Amino acid sequence: MPPKRKTPKGPPPKVVTPQQEEEEESQEQVLEKFTLELQWCIKQIEMSMEKPKSQKHVEDLAKSHKTLSSSKAAMVKKRQIMRSMFGDYRAKMGQDEKTFKMDAPKLKEKVEAPSNSVFIKKAVDETDKSVDAVSEKDDKNGENKENALKFSTTENNFKFEFTPETDSQ
């Protein structure tokens, strides 16, 4: 009798197809949407707890808040609580979004500068003088500045007014 083949242990390797990638992305989108809905419901419960109607109502809200905030509670149970507390919570979320949504700033695609602009240059010195006369004047001022900025040396050297301590242990 021939020897038996060894069967591989564990699950077979997954073959990734484009459809599976799309399903994974859609699952991520569904999970993201659920967390957004869950946060909205939790926020609504917290707002309701600030303005209590009765003691029993507060207890129901606290129980629902605890369940929705729990990471161990099943998604189905959370959806049931959300549906029982708020009814069609998705429609209410849409209404809230419409009421509190700020309009995004609208930008124009093509903005043209006005074509009738005029550039006016103001003269600093008198306009009667020629350019050569102005440059000569600047040269003379430059020489005067060099003569005015001569430093004289002194015998005052900078010294620190303390003696360093030495360890005498």
End-to-end distance, in Å? 93 Å
Our count of helices gives: 5
The string of secondary-structure elements, in order, is HHHHH
Q: Calculate the mean pLDDT score and round it.
A: 77
Number of DSSP E strands: 0
Bin the helical content. 40-55%
- Outline, from the CA principal axes? extended
Question: Which regions have little confidence, pLDDT < 50, spanning 5+ residues?
Answer: none
What gyration radius follows from the Cα positions, in whole Å? 41 Å
Region (Disordered): 1-29, 50-74, 128-150
Biased composition (Basic and acidic residues): 50-63, 128-148
InterPro entries: DUF4615
Family: Belongs to the UPF0488 family.
Written account of the structure:
- The protein is mainly α and about 170 residues long.
- It has a domain at about 20-100.
- Helices cover about 55% and strands about 0% of the residues.
- It has five helices and no strands.
- It has helices spanning about 20-50, 55-70, 75-85, 90-100, 130-150.
- Helix 1 (about 20-50) runs antiparallel to helix 2 (about 55-70).
- The longest helix is centred in the first third of the chain and has 33 residues, at about 20-50.
- The N and C termini lie far apart (about 95 Å).
Write a brief structural summary:
The protein is mostly helical and 169 residues long. The protein is 53% helix and 0% strand.
